[in-house]
Amino acid sequence: xxxxxxxxxxxxxxxxFAGACSSGDQPSSSQGAGSASAPAPGGGTLTVFAxxxxxxxxNVLGKQFEAAHPGVKVxxxxxxxxxxxxxxxxxxxxxxxxxxxxxxxxxxxxxxxIDGQPTVFATNKLAxxxxxxxPKGIKTFADLTKPGLNVVVCAQQVxxxxxxxxxxxxxxxxxxxxxxxxxxKQVLAKxxxxxxxxxxxxxxxxTSAAGKVDKVDFPESSGAVNQYPIAVVKNAxxxxxxxxxxxxxxxxxxxxxxxxxxxxxGK
Length: 267
Hints:
267 residues, 11 strands, metal-binding, Molybdate ABC transporter substrate-binding protein
């Protein structure tokens, strides 16, 4: 019996030792796999929903933010602000939302998809984009009502469309556009391609397309200035990074880059 007890004890000890080695090896292996696939500390992908008119400025600022945050990748979804709000309402995942007007940001807040208080970071106003050399001789907003002109505008639910409608009301001049586009870049593209003689876009869009279109400023645009608010999205996958990006846009670097193509200052 004594010999049998000793044999059992020895077997148990060997099993216990083997189990300890096995359990000790396993965490080491899984930690190695995890560190290989996980992003670097502070890294990850930041998703920004931004109005189409912010494309050029935000592309530059995104690169600057990445350079200051090693391991971070910033991706953008540029569309009309109303379309972006609809995406958020439908459950699309994003970290930051930058709207081209207060109305669509207010809707996002009311719909419960925004975290915290939005802040206005820039302003913008309309200009007329025309073909190079302005062959139709368009000089004023009223000129857009002349017969025979193919004029393109944004749809009314889009911020640039709402601003266009506001100018129409203040001037008493009603446009008869050949098409209404879902974002301002589509309007600009139609002028660039020759499908339209003129299009109502933002000053910043016409400036960014210098060399491809000419810009005609008109004083009535000052009565339809759009404010651009930015905010962190509720339940943002990268909430900490989203806050940092939000602050970056509101900071000196953001203001400087936005001013380059004609955005006015925010609050």
